[in-house]
Amino acid sequence: MPVLRLPLKSTADLSAIFNRQLRNTSVLSLEPGIIQGFVDVLPLANLRLFRINLNRSIAIHADRNAGKKIFSLDLSPSSASDCIRAQGVSLTRSALFGFNNNLKDMDLVLPVCSDMCAIAVSDNFFFSQLQRFDCLQVLDTLERFNVLANSSVSRDLMTALNQCWAMPCLVNDDVLESEIVVALIQCLMDANERKVAKPVSRKDRHNAALRVLSIAFADPKRPFEVQDLSNLLHQSRTSIFSGCKEKFGMSPVQVVRSVRLHQVRHALLDLEFSVEKNLNGVVDTAEYFGFVGRSHFAKYYKSEFMETPRQTLNHRRKAEQIF
């Protein structure tokens, strides 16, 4: 099966791709600049493999779907200067993460240097494979932990996944799926140099920060001030401010503004979205996403993307002429 490459030009693009396996995905760019990259997808009979490549560091928050597990692994070299943070845990070594049975959401920070691969599998299929190989003791690991590192992860699974992305068309799909399943189960069984971590309980202010992100992403037309967020989340202004600073390195206002600016950019680049929402040009689009003052909006936009909104719109119009 050939790999399907999905280009990324905005946080909205990434949200739409993640929502194929999750729900209510919100994405926040953690640094200024234009989002560029891609997600590679390899659909197999019982597995879906995803590989993410981005030019910006991002935070992702999403609700998990019942009946499905997602095993994730950073394929980048362990010597990378920055590391993925999964559910608040910094992963400084090659490790499986995100698989705990009791997780209700995804809380993920991907640095620029990351090369995250995710394996999505239904609970029913995975349980049938554990029965097939007489490995039901693995269920205890899935119940108690959310991060796992050992020699099988850093050696066998990383090798299998790198080979999978390098030459998927040279291997029969059934064989490829079987190799990945066997390597995954071996990782969960291997006690050699094993290190595990439990899910970290999240502080109220960090929950509030994630809700700020989710609300801003899901309700782009709604105006928000810090007091509005405080009333909505039943948290003090200080708690919300501290939570956003600790989680994202931004104030609540900066989080909301960044989300909205990226949504404006997505709309300016997406003709279909603009037609659907009846948005004619920069002013309509900015007002749709809650920006009232034109001069302030233009200043924030250029500071975020190093180009004016009019230049962004012109990129789309030039592409339409070529099409």
Describe this structure in words.
The chain has 323 residues and is α+β, with helices and mostly antiparallel strands. A hairpin with a 3-residue loop joins β3 and β4. α6 crosses α8 and α6 packs parallel to α9.
What would you say about this model in short?
With 323 residues, this protein is an alpha+beta fold.
Described by strand count, sense and barrel closure, the largest sheet is: 8 strands, antiparallel
How do the helices and strands follow one another from N- to C-terminus?
A: EHEEEEEEEEEEHHEHHEHHHHHHHH
The total of helices stands at 13
Mean pLDDT: 91
- Care to count the β-strands? 13
Which structural category do the helix and sheet elements fall into? alpha+beta
| Parts with pLDDT < 50 across at least 5 consecutive residues | none
Estimated helix fraction: 40-55%
Q: Give the CA-based shape.
A: globular
Order of strands, main sheet, comes to 1-3-4-11-6-9-12-13
Q: What percentage of the residues does DSSP assign to strands (E)?
A: 15-25%
What is the distance, rounded to the nearest whole angstrom, between the alpha carbons of the first and last residues? 28 Å
Radius of gyration: 21 Å
